[in-house]
Queue: 2 jobs
Job 1
Amino acid sequence: MQILDCTFRDGGYYTQWDFPDDLAKPYFETMERLPVDIVELGYRSRPQKGYYGQYFYSPVLLLRKVRELAPTKTLAVMLNEKDCSLNELDSLLDPCRGLVDMIRIAVAPVRFSNAIALAEIIREKGFKVGINIMYISSLNENSALFDTLSKGDDVADAISLVDSYGGVSPEQLKLIVSLCKGVTSIPLGFHGHNNLELAMANTLTAIDSGCEIIDATITGMGRGAGNLRTELLLTYLAAKNGLETDFDKLGNIVARFEKLKEDYGWGTNLPYMVSGANSLPQKDVMDWVSKRYYSVNSIVRALQNQKRGEKDNLKLPVLQPALCEKVIIVGGGPSVNEHAEAIRLFVEKDPEIVVIHASAKNAAVFKGVNNKQYYCIVGNEGQRLESVFSAAEGIDGICVLPPYPRKMGTFVPSGLIEQSFELEDVSFSTKYADSHTAVALQTAILLKAVEVFLLGYDGYPNQSLSVKEQDLVNENNYLFNEAAKHFSTFAALTATRYEIREQLSLYQYII
Amino acid sequence: MQILDCTFRDGGYYTQWDFPDDLAKPYFETMERLPVDIVELGYRSRPQKGYYGQYFYSPVLLLRKVRELAPTKTLAVMLNEKDCSLNELDSLLDPCRGLVDMIRIAVAPVRFSNAIALAEIIREKGFKVGINIMYISSLNENSALFDTLSKGDDVADAISLVDSYGGVSPEQLKLIVSLCKGVTSIPLGFHGHNNLELAMANTLTAIDSGCEIIDATITGMGRGAGNLRTELLLTYLAAKNGLETDFDKLGNIVARFEKLKEDYGWGTNLPYMVSGANSLPQKDVMDWVSKRYYSVNSIVRALQNQKRGEKDNLKLPVLQPALCEKVIIVGGGPSVNEHAEAIRLFVEKDPEIVVIHASAKNAAVFKGVNNKQYYCIVGNEGQRLESVFSAAEGIDGICVLPPYPRKMGTFVPSGLIEQSFELEDVSFSTKYADSHTAVALQTAILLKAVEVFLLGYDGYPNQSLSVKEQDLVNENNYLFNEAAKHFSTFAALTATRYEIREQLSLYQYII
């Protein structure tokens, strides 16, 4: 049995395939010393749109360094079949000769024959060839794959079964392995994802069923819920089979990745469990989990919709608001509560000011204020609003939701369905249409506001910004910049770390 | 099949069985609405030494509140067999009548007959009785338990198999269940721990093998590596068996516990994996993992020693140092590096000053300083020291280790074995003998120091103290207080948030 560690290749989904040298060096040095047979360090790829880091392209420069750090290991890189045509193989692979030992091709079951065509050429170039078949939790006895699998016999050195959705059960896996073994004699492998915390059990089942190449990553770092942990596999094999493992070295590298995990937060959680149990793709879930304003709840609701094949379950009337000149947009920062008295004074002085609540977090501050109020309902804001206002007192205001269909589903606070509207579109921005700040800004544009004041967009202290927070900051700055073009005044009235065109003070208006 | 949620009972190991009311209320209300059959809310216990919170004693006051929040659920409390004698049952259980439905007895396999004696009386009082057999990963076909298990038939309503070490495999579990079924007809249950990420797979195996009561906790909160997650079991059963589950309610309560988890950090990690794979008790590991100065490495090393039955592997000569009057003790805080120049000046001015490095973190600052230096080697400090000094330059100084035998094992930096000594004892304190600060203070006492100055004990900003940090602060404050009695001067010379008798400034000495 061989162990393949693909921490950088699969973990790159979290870091955009950049890893600092002071992590890369100890990682590859440790791999060299652990009983890991194959190290898959990244992808090779033709140029793609958008930013992808060095382990996505794995340039020769990088391969040379890795080769030096792990001289005795089999080095592998991966190609995505769907992004790779036959005539590109020369330019992609010829420079790797002598540096990389093995090329693995990731392919969907229905496109298996394309992988075979690639494998033929790759093997001729002198590389070992692995074919990674994805989405195996959607396979069964009748899947067409098993009719064509034997074509791999002549061109591949291994076929690995990839539980991309993290949804396969040990019994289903046992069946799939035996179906494979019925038609091919190539060594099989297994790559497990951990949505249902079954990566380890599935791996043990795979080994029992005769799989010979086991994929794992340090701390389970990998797309979505992540993978089988290398340290778990090694610890288990050390205890049960006497596999020689240097736990000092293993412990040190695990500690390094645990630190990185604090920032990126891979590992399973309720949304990944739901996607795994229902074999739904992780890509959306991974985006949603990384956004702070989507609660666990709203993600699970969206997944339940996906499972039922519903994009959304409620079409609301389109918002066509009465116009007004002056608008305040209220964010979720603590400054609103801190300056509550001054804010109420500012708003009540001018009954024409319209209040748009981007977040319901500070809605209580405006209780009893007579100005017209809009509540933007994205993610969990509907439930938050319900918890601010008791059923008895009711909520006086209008709810605004993102355009239909809403990926995240529709939740309108109880009793408010008659006062709820959706945006026709988010016209001022091409991105982030379902962020609550985007909905608030679009509402201000529809109101044809001339002066827009922002309260409670406090931002975060720079030194302690997590990756999630940094993403949110970038996103809001982009939205502020795009929306500002539509207003003569666009100013923050409470202290802010965001890039907002003007920064004024609430207190200059109520002096 | 019945689902038993024991979040507060097993999760209490992390919170000393206190949970705030604003978590308890939504937790029990959510249990009432989820397809959970039994809620085990805590222990009942006679008075114990040390602090244990309200869910450890579960007073009638509390039981009444819980009964109101979850009126339709079977409520259970647990008794520890080893802490419970027959004549205490009246006082422990009579007050619970009408409030609690089920009593579960936790018992080691070798003491099973004691549980039977308790069960008889408990059943007569009108309660349902469950017996939880612990440490099942140490059972096999020849275990004496299987000769006596049938005695449970007349007195118990369920027997649950508890994988206390988190070390059982699905095959072993299948065997144990079938051995049980061979001798008893009582409904069986399973309680899985997640050290090897096999709690879910074992649970599915238990269900397949005919277990009828499945234990789980929200977010897996439970002793050591924790349990099967309730949300995972419910998600799986909802997807595969159509179990009706309110994901909104589930998502909300999971989010609450995920927040708590950020503070306490339950879940598996390399040390728990090692203890699980080798069926070692989690209690020590849980203590060690909660102490910041034990690295993953040193814990794994200690566990490897336990596995081999070694308490420690190296007896060193006892430290008998030359005496000196003036000592500085250097902690690991960043202030040492910030004031490096001034510190070197202070130390070099007086060649008689002895430097004791409680942590090796700041050792580099004292490179080339001619004063005598002691390095306290606890946890990972030995390796840290190695990484500060290259092999070529060597380390000039004396290493001091805690008294023999050292639970955490012995690691001496390479080439330093001739300069390494151990303390005979830590006499000034009855606690924390293997903390690096205790070793440093004891060394100062052995030196018969009169003036002791502390550098780099910065402490933490109060508002963001994690549980671990708070524990360390309490521990160090206790040590400072006890040790100070031995010195005329005991003063911090860099800014500190610790309670150190005197607070002076480094700069007053080098003006």
Note: The two ends of chain A are 76 Å apart (CA to CA).
Job 2
Amino acid sequence: MENDDVVFIGNKPVMNYVLAVVTQFSGGANNVTIKARGRAISRAVDVAEVVRNRFLDDVELKEILISTEKVTSDRGESNVSAMEITIGK
Amino acid sequence: MENDDVVFIGNKPVMNYVLAVVTQFSGGANNVTIKARGRAISRAVDVAEVVRNRFLDDVELKEILISTEKVTSDRGESNVSAMEITIGK
């Protein structure tokens, strides 16, 4: 997959990530994958929706995946949900 | 779509909704749709993953949809992201 980019969603405001996604499309990306884990998943959906509805009308949803990832911390191993939303032209 | 059920995700613990989904499958549902809006979206993904990985091995992801809904409150109209995850046998 050439010209594909990834934006990881953290705890910053939604518009920061919207700008990152729009910038990648402006730079020639055909698809952008928005990835998030745990509570950031809600924000990932916000980012995809704001990009599609308010900035890039020609971009559509390509694929939505959910999964479970193992995370190791001081308190041992735990499971966290993860999500990937791919949008593209 | 006969025998299809819906579970709306709110602010209760994940296991409450997991139990609701498992109960619907036990009662004969072929598919269950897990719906959430806003911050509850992360919890909806948790519910789907816990049901699939820990309770019902024969259930798979059928469809994941995201959308934007308008919500009217005292402070006027605002947009909120929404998600539907359908799992089934």
Note: The interface with chain A takes residues 38-42, 45-46, 48-49, 53, 61, 64-68, 79, 81, 83, 85 of chain B (CB under 8 Å).
